[in-house]
């Protein structure tokens, strides 16, 4: 009977290499696969982002200025309509800030695509009242900025009085209706 237990000794190098721990190695392999997959997806995401940005720039080249300016031009049309409506409701001929804003609104409107505004421009350029120049001329000269536009102020007063006398056939009514058509057309 031999109760002899061999002494504990460190394993030999050959034995250490043969000892494997499957659970730890499996976790290690999973982590490596996950890291590789994550890196691959990350690269794909950047590639996709780059492709989308290049495509957007190419498409922007084909988008016309009128399509880009459409929202701001619609806003300016609505503001011009509101100004004409205000002119029909009260005499704004002595209100210099109002006249300045009316002129700036017209300038913003013309900064976009002028093509759909042809009829409106024609109407504003043909209205003179008693003044030597057209309504559009005074709008385009930034009324109130650097000079005191008495003829323009008289036009605004005449437009208001005309509206009070015959609202259905007034020039302001026609201009407002024309702007309504433009807004509807552009929507």
3D structure, described in words:
By secondary structure, the chain is an all-alpha fold. It has 2 domains: 22-62; 65-186. 72% of the residues lie in helices and 0% in strands. The protein is built from 8 helices and no strands. It has helices at residues 13-18, 22-62, 65-89, 96-110, 118-126, 135-140, 150-165, 171-186. Helix 3 (65-89) runs antiparallel to helix 4.
What global shape is seen? Answer: rod-shaped
* Strand element count: 0
Quickly count the helices. Answer: 8
Class per helix and strand makeup: mainly alpha
Kindly state the mean pLDDT as a whole number? 79
Over the alpha carbons, how many angstroms does the gyration radius reach?
A: 38 Å
Overall helicity: over 70%
The CA-CA distance between the termini, in Å, is 104 Å
Summarize the main sheet. none
Unreliable sequence segments: none
Count of discrete domains: 2
What proportion of the residues form beta strands (DSSP E)? under 5%
What sequence of helices (H) and strands (E) makes up the elements?
Answer: HHHHHHHH
Topology of this structure?
Elements: H1 13-18, H2 22-62, H3 65-89, H4 96-110, H5 118-126, H6 135-140, H7 150-165, H8 171-186
What descriptors fit this protein?
0% strand, 187 residues, single chain, mainly alpha
Summed up, what is this model?
The chain has helices at residues 13-18, 22-62, 65-89, 96-110, 118-126, 135-140, 150-165, 171-186.
């Amino acid at each position: 009977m031999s109760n002899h237990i061999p002494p504990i000794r460190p394993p030999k190098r050959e034995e250490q290499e043969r000892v494997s721990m499957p659970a730890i190695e499996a976790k290690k392999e999973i982590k490596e696969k996950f890291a590789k997959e994550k890196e691959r997806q990350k690269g794909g995401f950047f590639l996709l982002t780059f492709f989308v940005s290049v495509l957007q720039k190419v498409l922007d080249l084909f988008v016309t200025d009128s399509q880009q300016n459409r929202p701001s031009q619609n806003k300016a049309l609505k503001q011009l309509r509101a100004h004409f409506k205000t002119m029909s409701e009260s005499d704004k001929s002595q209100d210099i800030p109002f006249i300045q804003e009316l002129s700036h609104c017209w300038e913003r409107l013309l900064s976009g695509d002028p093509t759909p505004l042809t009829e409106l421009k024609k109407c504003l350029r043909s209205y003179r009242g008693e003044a030597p120049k057209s309504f559009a001329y005074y709008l385009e000269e930034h009324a109130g900025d650097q000079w005191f536009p008495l003829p323009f102020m008289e036009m605004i007063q005449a437009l208001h009085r005309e509206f009070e006398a015959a609202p259905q056939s007034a020039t302001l009514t026609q201009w407002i209706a024309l702007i309504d058509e433009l807004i509807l057309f552009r929507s």
